[in-house]
Amino acid sequence: MSRPGVVRSVVRKLLPVVALGAVMLALVPPAQTAAATRTVRLEAGVQRGYTFSSSGAVVASKTVTYASPTNVSSDRRTWFTGRGRFLRISGGALAGTWVRESMTAYIPGLVVNVNYSPAAVVSFPKGTYLGYRFDSSYRILSTKRATFGAATTAYTARRGVIHGRPFAQMVSGTWSGYWIPIVSQTERVGQPLTCASPGHVTAGTQQSFTVLPGATNQVALTFDMGGRIDPARNIVNRLILDRVCTTFFPTGAMAQTTEGQAVLKLIGAHPELFELANHTDHHCNLRDGGGGSPTTAACPTSPPGDTFIRAEMTRAATILKTASGMDPAPYWRPPYGAVDTRVRNAVASVGYTKTFMWDLDTIDWRPVAEGGPTAAQIAEKVASRAVNGSDVLMHLGGWNTYDALPSMVQRLRARGLEPTTISHILR
């Protein structure tokens, strides 16, 4: 990539550094550290606040678990060398403590850390990258991906944090005008995708999976789409923002709804992140009979015959391919987990030889009022119980799934478990 000839004038801000005892505390510019109240979003799940001594040592900490996302006030945003950037909370249960800025604790929108004039270099190691354009509320407008077979560079005019995630806005090369995720708030190095959607394994012989074999510090966060669908697009966009490779199991019936069509189009636009599998046409219980979504009328009350089972799979496949451009075969998941040898043989006869169950069920389809989990409980269950190769079952219509994702993903990655697709693990 080449350096642009002219970069629009920007103001360069110098970061003052103040030594406190044996620890250096690097402070952001006065405009960002003055005692002005800002809103901070604390995502659902465990949040930890710290109290520091004048030398920068931790003298106390406090942990609070938020059942759902909470907005609190903050009066200071400061960089602590060796620790990261922190927000001093001035309201709520964590008042008086410092919370580390991250995708689970952040000032909503864009907070600019540094403007560059002239433009500064961003390094891109070999890999696949995703750039973003945002609207005025910093929702995703569009994305652009590129893969580099060798290390390269480009130029940025400013570096900042968007919803707690570090970005650089590019002014040259492939992503001119786009924001690119960078590895940290201090390093101008692009952050490549660490997951992959390499294409389905071949049909081969019949196999049934619970914990996925061959995982290398990986888990599969999988989503069914067979009933309630209201937050589906928000969930998919959050997965795009956080670069979480995912396997989706939609039904044909839900894929034909207006919202389902939009969801499938969004999934199909991101083959670098996502893959599809088959969840039948009408979500019938193929082993015992009954079930069904959004209506039970299409499902026989007694165990369906092989012809019905095959039609459920082939109709759904046609709908999914038309809506997304992706072929779900040979992956499928039985509705309700209801499957036996007869059902497996019937679906295998039309190309679906890979049956995927799960080892962690979030029960996110059940609302809290009916005994279902809060967002914090979903995040805690997955983050604490997932093992190498786990197949986690969630739903695009999950009641609190959207709010559970930031804490879940951050904590899994902190444990060294990268969320990725089923295919990435199996390959």
Report on the architecture of this protein.
The chain has 427 residues and is of the alpha/beta class. It folds into three domains: 35-106; 111-181; 207-426, Glycoside hydrolase/deacetylase (TIM Barrel, Alpha-Beta Barrel), CATH 3.20.20.370. Helices cover 20% and strands 32% of the residues. It has nine helices and 24 strands. The strands form seven sheets. Strands 17, 18, 19, 22, 23 and 24 form a six-stranded parallel beta sheet that branches. The chain has a five-stranded antiparallel beta sheet with strand order 8-7-6-3-9, with no helix packed on it. It has a four-stranded antiparallel beta sheet with strand order 10-13-14-15, with no helix packed on it. A hairpin with a 3-residue loop joins strand 6 and strand 7 (84-89). Helix 2 packs parallel to helix 8 (401-414) and helix 7 (375-385) packs parallel to helix 8. The longest helix is centred in the last third of the chain and has 19 residues, at 306-324. It is globular, with a radius of gyration of 24 Å. Mean pLDDT is 91; it is low at 1-34.
Low-confidence stretches: 1-34
Largest beta-sheet characterization? 6 strands, parallel
Proportion in β-strands: 25-35%
Mean pLDDT: 91
CATH class of the largest domain: Alpha Beta
Number of E-type strands: 24
Q: What is the helical fraction, as a range of percent?
A: 10-25%
CATH architecture of the largest domain, by name, is Alpha-Beta Barrel
Q: Span between N and C termini?
A: 33 Å
Number of helical segments with 4 or more residues: 9
Q: If you compute it from the alpha carbons, what radius of gyration comes out, rounded to the nearest whole angstrom?
A: 24 Å
